[in-house]
Amino acid sequence: MSAKKKIGVLGASGYTGADAVRLLARHPNAEILALTANTHAGKAMDEVFPHFFMLELPRLTEWEKVDWAPQLQGEAVYGLIEFYREKIAAARLVACPGCYPTAALLALVPIARAKLIDVNDIVIDAKSGVTGAGRGLKQNTLFSEAGEGLSPYSVGTHRHSPEIEQEIGVAAGSAVTVNFTPHLIPMSRGELCTSYAKLNGASADDLRAALAEAYRNEPFVHVAKKGVLPQTQNVRGSNYVQIGVFADRIKNRAIVISVLDNLVKGSAGQAIQNMNLMLGFPETTGLEQIALFP
Amino acid sequence: MSAKKKIGVLGASGYTGADAVRLLARHPNAEILALTANTHAGKAMDEVFPHFFMLELPRLTEWEKVDWAPQLQGEAVYGLIEFYREKIAAARLVACPGCYPTAALLALVPIARAKLIDVNDIVIDAKSGVTGAGRGLKQNTLFSEAGEGLSPYSVGTHRHSPEIEQEIGVAAGSAVTVNFTPHLIPMSRGELCTSYAKLNGASADDLRAALAEAYRNEPFVHVAKKGVLPQTQNVRGSNYVQIGVFADRIKNRAIVISVLDNLVKGSAGQAIQNMNLMLGFPETTGLEQIALFP
Amino acid sequence: MSAKKKIGVLGASGYTGADAVRLLARHPNAEILALTANTHAGKAMDEVFPHFFMLELPRLTEWEKVDWAPQLQGEAVYGLIEFYREKIAAARLVACPGCYPTAALLALVPIARAKLIDVNDIVIDAKSGVTGAGRGLKQNTLFSEAGEGLSPYSVGTHRHSPEIEQEIGVAAGSAVTVNFTPHLIPMSRGELCTSYAKLNGASADDLRAALAEAYRNEPFVHVAKKGVLPQTQNVRGSNYVQIGVFADRIKNRAIVISVLDNLVKGSAGQAIQNMNLMLGFPETTGLEQIALFP
Amino acid sequence: MSAKKKIGVLGASGYTGADAVRLLARHPNAEILALTANTHAGKAMDEVFPHFFMLELPRLTEWEKVDWAPQLQGEAVYGLIEFYREKIAAARLVACPGCYPTAALLALVPIARAKLIDVNDIVIDAKSGVTGAGRGLKQNTLFSEAGEGLSPYSVGTHRHSPEIEQEIGVAAGSAVTVNFTPHLIPMSRGELCTSYAKLNGASADDLRAALAEAYRNEPFVHVAKKGVLPQTQNVRGSNYVQIGVFADRIKNRAIVISVLDNLVKGSAGQAIQNMNLMLGFPETTGLEQIALFP
């Protein structure tokens, strides 16, 4: 076995930080050496997240006390590993995509690159569990507010839209504007993008075949067989992504549905997959848990 | 006070039937005389729905024992009261729209009729609570299956699509095909349609103004002020509908969001509103409960 | 019709205040004249609670601007109407019991008073929905923390215990100490107390009969028939209480289960029931809504 | 590495079967060779549980086709590994306890054995998530019935009571009757027992110390420090148990709270822990996942 690498988690008191700790604590090649969280500095991790009661972890500390190389930020590589694997392998710093861009881009980039869809007529109706809003105290994420209800938010203005447009633009070779409308769903984890696209002569089956080919060797991205409906339950707590393609009632249109767990493949799991690649471990190391269902 | 009318509820063991009973039992002009439910015939209503423990209700009986005029079915009027008020007032039988068509049509008919949108390029992304699937025993509506998760269903094939197309077609004066994609949300009540439309030169503000004008005198349909986001929590358990209009990132496109409670304005409440009109009572009688939030 | 009474709601930005507004806005003899909420003073009520979009309500104001007679506090009467009806009818100020004491005392006072149970050996295992913790921002009431989980809290130390002990003591004619252990349940509304008692020679049937007799004329307290299990779903959104009594496996012990909606009979509804009595209206005025199920 | 053992899962279409597959598929010493489920025989596992889309698994088959030694049933050993480790290590067949007995017995057996509590005066108020009721189609486990509500069930009559009494009786050396009252909680996974006990002169601290000593070397049973409240969120999806002890308001009484995941330590995980012991693997193999929170 290779020696363990020393790992620090910056921002360990948030949900993404906690999920990174959950995964790294059982990663065979990782040793958690530092956890930072300025407002909780000095506390034990299981005071902040009691579900870590069984672990020996370093106490939380200020981020200033950790040597984490802010001077590298200028050379950060975009961490969507399915499309930037070589750059990431050679990088010293990787900036992971947000959860929404990950879900949307995995569904759309291969078919935009193959010119199968009209990239100027894409509607992405996105739905996210409440952890997507973080652990900060906000009225709209209280149980009694978000439970038993469904709310759109940031309609027409979500900060993730430009990131999605940039990468679809790179794939298509032209500037792109997309509709991206997120909704808050009464569940903790999970994200689903329903993407509506106009076809350039192709069929829904062509799209599915192109996606299947693009992800043929990807360990975590699965294209569902015709007729199988992706649902967030299938990926809860896991690093997997599931994508399905469906013909629309309207001729010459198709629907691409992608699901992931926003805290795993949408953030902490994706970061560890990148870390594995950068450190020379198999990409799947420590990430093969199957979805927790039910 | 006017005398009470004798009312029968056919199908009283389903969720829509139960919500009709909930409302009719406190309706000042209604007296429930018969409840039918073939598989439960002979039972007391509070054996089937224990939340009626405080009511005196007739026992459930077979529908054959109730005189309910099946021969009238041929003359049924489409019961979307906001658009067919005069016909309903004169009708002997009314067929209420489904919950999805109600939510979609209230958002789209006035702006289709006013030619503000391109009716051949409408995407309706619909989300519904689990009661929409009824009380029948199905695996996908078990708590452990539908909870903490989100599933699309009937993608491209939902049975409500033709009903939506028919009425938008009537409004626009031409045949129409729409995209309609429903999703199952982990909540019991509530329905939200996010409708994406291409504009015929109009702005989002124009759409909002047209909707506000169309519903100016409607007691239950409210068009939200600019910037206010409809959410299902605002109408839970009530007969109200809330509609909001938003400009899209993509030029010349807009987003119309409509919410209702599928068991009230989406079925039982709408039926009682029609009943009030047909029997000469004020339309709002027995229907003015405010949403139960939180 | 009698003239409407002018009503002020102090603390209108909390969940209890909102439920009072929900009920008072449809109360035939009430007119809401003032709403106070210091941190939100100046706002429209539907900015604070968007589900009131259909109502015309006064703007929120500071409580100092409302004439609400703090000098009366010394003469406040304990507002458990089922046991203090005469005093409340004559009172100028009523202090309503907490939600937990209401649920526990309605289950236990009549059988303590009748000496059917050993009042020094009562275990009350209480379960509450998350609205019981209020609308204030706390980490443990975030959706992602309270959802899909179950937490005991204030074990052995809950502030409602002395109030419960005081009133059972009054009923029994002796000082009493009870166990009271609350748990936070992943639902918004509802409260259930499972009370375990040692019998003084009586049977579970005797307890049920005593409770049924005590509440024979009460409009909102129903004692369930033998074998019927109370559940919070049966009273959600309503002012009703349901109580069931069960024999224990252990000889000479019984279990009394009581349910209510903490925001209605546990607070706002109970307050309005008291108000009705004090102002000379029928007690049930504006409070007869049936539970919202499902 | 040791060679993989060939494993069959009987009843693979239920929730416990599925969780066994989830864990065994990533167990380094297990190879799943057979999955039985009579009503689904012939299907692929991911038709029955779509979250297994990424696994290669044998098709479901009838149990008659698997050689599983029913003749061993007479010699089955009670599989509560913390108390029967030696017998299990030597056994050919182990019968795992139910989820409720596991949660209750881990909290009570060591303190009953040490004569710290009066075993004839124990009240166990139990709360379970909905998966405890299985995947069969029942009305009361539909999302719209079990959601946003709380129901007691089998009050005084639950089939797990005799199993709990038997083992506490063994520990105490005398016949025992306990109160055991289960409640259905609107969450999928998790079980919490609040056990109320009368003390034989001991203090709550003595109980905590006795439990801590009993489980000092146990990999999965953790006794919480004084003041730390166990909650089901802390063990969701994991094989861990957390136990807390609290002084009661009533002198000479204490409260013991235990939590586990009913599908893991309460069934599939416990079975695999026993399997590891029987086959000579470290007990923790394949079972060290940390709780999925949030």
Structural notes for this entry:
4 copies of one chain form a homotetramer. Chain A is α/β, with parallel strands linked by helices and 294 residues long. Helices cover 28% and strands 20% of the residues of chain A. Chain A contains 8 helices and 12 strands. The first copy, chain A, has helices at 15-24, 45-48, 81-90, 99-113, 143-146, 161-172, 204-214, 264-279, and strands at 5-10, 30-36, 60-61, 77-78, 94-95, 123-128, 151-152, 179-184, 191-198, 221-223, 241-247, 253-260. In chain A, the strands form 3 sheets. In chain A, strands 7-8-6-9-12-11-10 form a 7-stranded mixed beta sheet. In chain A, helix 3 links the parallel strand 4 (77-78) and strand 5. In chain A, helix 1 packs across helix 8 (264-279), helix 3 runs parallel beside helix 8 (264-279) and helix 4 runs parallel beside helix 6. The first copy, chain A, starts with a strand and ends in a 15-residue tail after the last helix. The interface between A and B is large, with 50 and 51 residues.
The share of residues in extended strands of chain A comes to 15-25%
The largest sheet of chain A has its strands arranged as: 7-8-6-9-12-11-10
SS-based class of chain A = alpha/beta
Overall mean pLDDT of chain A? 96
Which residues of chain A form runs of ≥5 with pLDDT under 50? none
Number of H- or I-type helical stretches of chain A:
8
Percentage of residues in helical conformation of chain A:
25-40%
Order of helices and strands of chain A: EHEHEEHEHEHEHEEHEEEH
Q: Whole-Å distance between the termini of chain A?
A: 35 Å
Shape assignment of chain A: globular
